[in-house]
Write a structure and sequence with these properties.
This is Reverse transcriptase. It contains 15 helices and six strands. It is mainly alpha-helical and 310 residues long. It folds into four domains: 32 residues, no CATH class; 106 residues, no CATH class; 64 residues, no CATH class; 68 residues, no CATH class.
Length: 310
């Protein structure tokens, strides 16, 4: 390192952070470094195990917020001032972790956060208004108290924008290409638009992708979005098996027919006689798509013009 960079290592300040099993099994005591089990980088506590991120960051932050609220409780603050304190001091700290660490947080965690916030806002007295009223915008009579779970969802679901707008072959962002390749033969877009999955393990082993999808499922269940979307892609779609083995549907996508929604016009699926005007290969695909839409419960949403392929 010194020969290449021109710098010297300060052994007293340097720490060694073993990540893999092989590194942890190595006789680390023989190395002139302090062995660290975690380290802090840009405000995020990095641990050797993914499962420890929750305790090292979110649980730790919640404890600090609880201590801060206890210290602030002696101040003579109005209700509005206490809500503004939550907005300007507590929310940014949680939002930063929400955006930096893609980790699944259960509802019980946000119940603990709300409990700490409520105790601070009402100064350990019985709440005089429901939390939902305080969370309303000012125009609707509320105080715009932050909904921490909504901020958590927004911070993580923003990644889906990249999933939906990019194809694996066109991905210019390294992490996006890695995540797209980790779900093959299906696609990130198909997983986003599919019905609620009981498990994401059959489709990917990527912990980040699985966690993001789990958060997405949590969001969909909360808002009642549990069925498949008509914007699901025709190609590389695990809910439409022919698309996983037939490259024809990728050809349709290149021709401008990307999703099941593109198959419909005026709420009627194209008839076989009209579809027959195309080549046999497209007529065969039409039959597969017709069967697929019936299986998905989308038999009457619009019409496909196979002649668009020519």
């Amino acid at each position: 390192f010194r020969e290449i960079s021109g710098y010297k290592l300060n052994l007293n300040k340097s720490e060694l952070f073993p990540i893999s099993t092989a590194a942890r099994n190595y006789p680390l005591y023989s190395l002139p470094f302090k062995i660290a089990h975690h380290f802090t980088y840009l405000g995020v506590s990095v641990t050797s195990k993914f499962e420890d991120l929750l305790k090292a960051n979110f649980v730790s932050l919640l404890s600090k917020v609880r201590e801060d609220c206890e210290r602030w409780s002696i101040l003579n603050l109005s209700l509005t001032a206490r809500v503004n304190t939550v907005k300007m001091n507590i929310l940014p700290r949680f939002s930063y972790l929400f955006q930096c660490i893609p980790i699944f947080l259960p509802q019980s965690f946000f119940q603990k956060v709300d409990s700490v916030i409520s105790e601070f806002i009402w100064n350990k007295k019985v709440p005089r208004l429901r939390k939902q009223y305080l969370q309303r915008p000012r125009k609707l009579g509320g105080l715009a108290l932050p909904h921490f779970r909504f901020y958590y969802w927004a911070s993580n679901i923003r990644i889906l924008k990249y999933w939906l707008q990019s194809e694996p072959s066109d991905a210019q962002i390294n992490w996006l290409a890695i995540e797209a390749n980790s779900v093959k033969p299906t696609s990130l877009r198909a997983l986003v638009h599919s019905a609620i999955l009981s498990s994401t393990l059959p489709y990917t082993k990527n912990r980040i992708v699985r966690t993001t999808l789990r958060i997405w499922v949590q969001f969909k269940r909360y808002f009642g979005l549990q069925t498949s979307s008509t914007y699901a892609p025709l190609a590389a779609n695990h809910q439409f098996p022919p698309s996983l083995v037939d490259d024809l549907f990728s050809m349709w996508s290149k021709a401008g027919i990307h999703s099941f929604k593109d198959l419909y016009i005026d709420n009627v699926f194209e008839t076989k006689s009209n579809a027959g005007r195309g080549e046999y290969v497209f007529w065969r695909a039409w039959c597969q798509l017709k069967s697929g839409t019936l299986d998905r419960g989308m038999s009457r949403i619009g019409t496909l013009y196979v002649t668009r392929m020519h």
